[in-house]
Specification:
Blueprint lengths: L1 H11 L10 H32 L1 H7 L9 H20 L7 H18 L7 H18 L2 H9 L1 H14 L16 H4 L1 H17 L1 H17 L1
Helix pairs in contact: 2-3, 2-10, 4-5, 4-11, 5-6, 8-10, 10-11
Length: about 220
């Protein structure tokens, strides 16, 4: 109950989140995140079972998840290290607003969006290079006025990043008919709820802990 109240309070006013980086709270947060993830996945599975029983269209979409085609070792590196790092740089780093964080976060946001829209289908090393170049450009452009603007809209910026983090997981499934898109809110529900907790963790405990929790979250995907 305390965990739920904490998340609700965070959603009401994210910028009021106070920092706490002690080891005790670090350990407790890891335990809380495991419990939180279990609850969210349990809700997701219950909803799935109910809808799968009554809706054949949803069954088609749910069973049409894009498979992991990379070799096992490559999949482990991508899912446990690269994907969490890129996504945390994109959606969580910039939540603590300063010139450098904004430059890196906005650059990652642009390149990641272009990649998922299939506009920029480059190898990872070139995408990384593009992010680096854009970050340097943005760092030169961003001034105190821009930083102040983002700080004045910080809550909106946090909500935006939570939502877009969930939306980038839409391509996890194949949608063969227009009707399939109606199920997107349910299909990305786990990522949306995970994004809320990771944003809270980043603001209260720092970027490294949020990254660690994200890696921990992806671990079962490569184990099963």
């Amino acid at each position: 109950m305390i965990l739920i109240n904490t998340i609700i309070s965070f959603l009401k006013n994210p910028i009021n989140t106070t920092q706490d980086k002690s080891f005790t709270t670090f350990r407790n947060l890891v335990i809380q995140y495991i419990i939180y993830s279990f609850l969210i996945l349990s809700i997701f599975r219950i909803l799935n079972m109910i809808i799968l029983d009554v809706c054949d269209t949803y069954t088609i979409v749910f069973n049409n998840r894009n498979p992991i085609t990379n070799p096992y070792f490559n999949s482990c590196v991508i899912l446990i290290i690269i994907a969490p790092l890129v996504e945390e740089l994109t959606f969580r780093l910039g939540l603590k607003i300063n010139r450098l964080n904004l430059a890196v976060s906005l650059s990652c946001n642009i390149i990641l969006t272009l990649y998922f829209l299939k506009v920029l289908q480059l190898p990872f090393i070139y995408r990384f290079g593009s992010i680096l170049i854009l970050s340097i450009i943005f760092y030169a452009i961003i001034n105190n006025r821009i930083v102040s603007f983002f700080k004045s809209k910080q809550n909106i910026y946090i909500y935006y990043n939570i939502l877009v983090f969930a939306l980038i997981h839409i391509p996890n499934y194949n949608y063969e008919q227009y009707s399939h898109y109606f199920f997107i809110p349910l299909l990305i529900f786990p990522q949306f709820m995970s994004g809320i907790f990771l944003s809270y963790a980043r603001l209260r405990y720092g970027f490294v802990l949020a990254l660690f929790l994200h890696m921990l979250h992806n671990l079962p995907i490569v184990i099963k």
